[in-house]
Design a protein that fits this description.
Blueprint lengths: L3 H6 L3 H7 L3 E12 L3 E4 L5 E8 L2 E4 L5 E4 L4 E4 L5 E4 L7 E2 L5 E4 L3 E7 L4 E11 L6 H4 L5 E2 H4 L5 H15 L4 H22 L8 H6 L1 H12 L7 H8 L3 H12 L3 H18 L5 H7 L5 H12 L3 H5 L27
Length: 338
């Protein structure tokens, strides 16, 4: 039997899984917009982060509602859903790709626009996680995460945002790198606070991850997706019989162990193909497939496109490149963004 200190130090399965969620690139820009103005941010596979440094603006949510962002507010959109920022609700929207960017301080891209009214300064970043937007760890999160709702429980967040505000205002050399790191920490603190506060209703995947037995199994799968996770192997992780495990897993998670393992493995395969540029045969081998053809069929069934689609993608855009600075408005988006 575990003593109290061992019990306290035992890792929480959900924390273990979230530990594997990390940023691999941050593309950023600064916006100085004078009223009236409205920018339409298109849907993308990377997460979006906005921080209001000076004055306020309105956010049009994915549902079409308008909510006010005050100075010092920040929002995170984990799955990069379409939305708009504006000086007032209903303002005529300009697609982000039509913005003209220029370099300031050598490394931060800045866009200016709008009319002749009151100016608003805000920072925006595209956050490229090491998993895609349809991965269970991101799919469980809400479309919008509000900093002001989390800051009460995360005392470090207001201080971090205050530091971001100073970096934005001072135009100092190295500000881009510091803003990148601050955005990384703020995003991680937001996600941690959301998890610790109960993840909303804590149903579905989150509830399964918090189940003492099933959570241990999910953590094992996510931490080692390339393992040969047979039902027998997973039952041993839960210390249960094969039949008892399979029944319990299906009732809590809502799908069979084999189906869940397949989803996690194919999302990992996409990362190996797209990010690490591994050959399809090498990925198939890593996941224990006897042939490239059988792996390709399984991959397309889960992801929706063949693995060759992701092998053919261009190399990732460096993190230092400003977001949406290209004429098409797609700079800074990770490979595979449509």
């Amino acid at each position: 039997m575990l003593d109290q200190s061992s019990r306290r130090s035992a890792p929480d399965p959900l924390s273990e899984m979230l530990r594997g969620l990390r940023l691999e690139g941050v593309d950023y820009a600064r916006y100085q917009m004078s009223a009236p103005w409205c920018l339409l941010f298109p849907a993308q596979s990377a997460a979006r982060f906005h921080f209001m440094a000076e004055q306020s603006c309105w956010l049009r949510t994915p549902e079409g509602d308008w909510v006010r962002l005050e100075q010092g507010d920040a929002v995170l959109m984990p799955r990069g859903v379409e939305h708009a920022l504006a000086s007032e609700p209903g303002a005529s929207a300009t697609p982000l790709g039509h913005c003209a960017f220029q370099q300031c301080c050598g490394e931060i891209a800045e866009a200016r626009g709008g009319g002749e009214g009151e100016a608003t300064l805000f920072f925006s970043a595209s956050l490229c996680f090491n998993v895609d937007a349809q991965h269970p760890m991101l799919r469980m999160m809400p479309e919008l995460m509000w900093v002001h709702e989390m800051a009460v429980h995360e005392p470090a967040i207001p201080a971090l945002l205050g530091t971001m505000s100073c970096e934005l205002a001072l135009d100092r050399v190295g500000a881009g790198g510091i803003l990148t790191r601050l955005a990384d920490v703020v995003a991680a603190a937001l996600i941690r606070s959301w998890v610790e506060r109960g993840c909303g209703s804590a149903t579905g995947w989150v509830a399964a991850a918090r189940d003492p037995d099933i959570g241990r199994v999910l953590a094992a799968i996510h931490l080692n997706p390339g393992e040969d996770w047979t039902v027998d192997a997973l039952a041993k992780v839960m210390h249960a019989s094969r039949s008892a495990f399979a029944e319990r897993f299906a009732s809590v998670v809502g799908e069979t162990p084999a189906r869940y393992v397949l989803q996690v493995q194919m999302h990992q395969a996409r990362q190996w193909l797209e990010r690490d540029k591994l050959r399809i045969t090498a990925v198939a081998r890593r996941l224990g497939y006897d042939s490239e053809a059988s792996f390709s069929r399984a991959f397309k069934r889960v992801i929706g496109k063949p693995p060759s689609h992701f092998r053919a993608m261009e190399p990732p855009v460096p993190a230092a490149r400003p977001i949406d600075a290209s004429p098409s408005g797609e700079a800074g988006q990770p490979p595979g963004t449509s």
